[in-house]
Amino acid sequence: MLTLPAVLTEKELRRGRGVLGVLVCSLLACAPEPLPAIHLGESRILRADLKGPVNPGSSSYLTDAVHFAESHAYTALLVYLDTPGGMVDSTRDIASAFLASKVPVIVYVAPSGAHAGSAGVFITIAANIAAMAPATNIGAAHPVTGSGQDIDKDAGSTMAKKVENDLAAFARGLAEQRGRNIAWAEKAVRESAAITSTEALKNHVIDLIADSEPALLTAIDGRTTKIGQSQVTLHTAQATVDLFPMTIQQRSLAVLGDPNVAYVLVMIGLFGIMMEMYHPGTIIPGVIGAFSFLLAGIGFNFLPVRIGALVLLAVAAGCFVAELYLSSFGLLALAGIVSMIMGSLLLMNRSNPSYFVDRSLEVSMGLVIPTVILIAAVTITILVLVVRAQRRRGTAGSEGLVGEAGVVQSPVDAEAGVVLVHGEQWQARSPESLPEGTHVRVKSVSGLRIEVIRHDLPT
Fold first, then answer.
1. Average pLDDT over residues 160-172
2. Kindly report the CA angle at 323 between 263 and 333, in degrees rounded to 5?
3. CB within 8 Å of 426: residues ≥ 6 apart
4. Residues 90, 58 contacting (CB under 8 angstroms)
5. Which tens digit of pLDDT belongs to each residue from 389-432?
6. What is the set of domains in the chain, with CATH numbers?
7. How far is CA 274 from the centre of its chain?
8. Which of 212, 378, 412, 432 is the most buried (most CB within 10 A)?
9. From CA 197, how far away is CA 130, in angstroms rounded?
């Protein structure tokens, strides 16, 4: 039988309170944002935001949003969309969830300047109501291979037709289901067609253009849409809009799936490994570098990354480290800088057939340039310090005595004498006789005997 002591010491109480505090803080940090409160008897709309690449995190998020809206009797699900595209499988999952939804799904490409690129085309077309803000655009979903070539040039016409026809049929099916422009949907796949919000409305790709969320909800109030085999009338003008939060896992995947975040992590990883190689045994830089590599790897799993670009980044790190051990007069450092810039610019492979992405999915030049400059500057600084340390005269042991000043304690001649240097007595000799009290400088060291000369004579 387990029993507890009747009385706990003050130290044990403090320790218990500390552990409890850590556990509570950990649970609070990991707790997801609170879900929207339910108020029965009023028209309510659930809002979800998809900003950034489409990946398993955003797919899980939007699928959960659909299920939450269904189970809590929301009037509709409103999805704000601004994406350069993303993974094909995740795009299909989102489109399937929208088609099977028991509540109307409204996709709003907003704010102004946003776009529904590549995968965003399929997500927008799959909605019951598709709307765009002014100065937004949609389109460009033509599949190409990982080498950047059209599929028929790189994989043969048979494979090209198979992939292209599959995606075109996917787009046509969505457009047909929602009563949108089937011809344009197919054109977006086969010809990478892209149009503005005004052109999208004119071509019946979307249902309306709205300047703001209130304007959108007012404009669609009273419209009917098909849910399953039934017609549903929207009541949105006076609806309350609740924001549906991401879970910790979904938010983490969304952040790691950002090209800029993944790039920063891989650069931190390279820098940490470089520092560990510069100073072996420091441990901390190596641990930070390895952990950053792990997080970057998770992010790269959701991004179309060129393996060759990662190799270039690794070569750049190798060049920086090699510069410390090989006398290349800065050529290796220069090669490292060039490799790092090229690897950074080529990192995102927008032509990977497993993704629908456009040219906006890339690492920002505003991030690449400062990062490369910072790493190059730190490397060059370390290189300069290492070179100076290698050239600096020794300051310890017998080598450190050469050039130091001392005072004769007993007369010194060519055979013997005693000199005080750095508070220590040394057996000494000199090419000339030096009386007691003479200031001298150490000329050389031989075993335990030093050779000195007058302090005022040239060394």
1. 78
2. 50
3. 406, 418, 419, 420, 448, 449, 450
4. yes
5. 666 555 555 566 788 889 999 999 988 899 998 778 889 999 88
6. 42-246 (3.90.226.10), 257-389 (no CATH), 398-454 (2.40.50.140)
7. 19
8. 412
9. 11
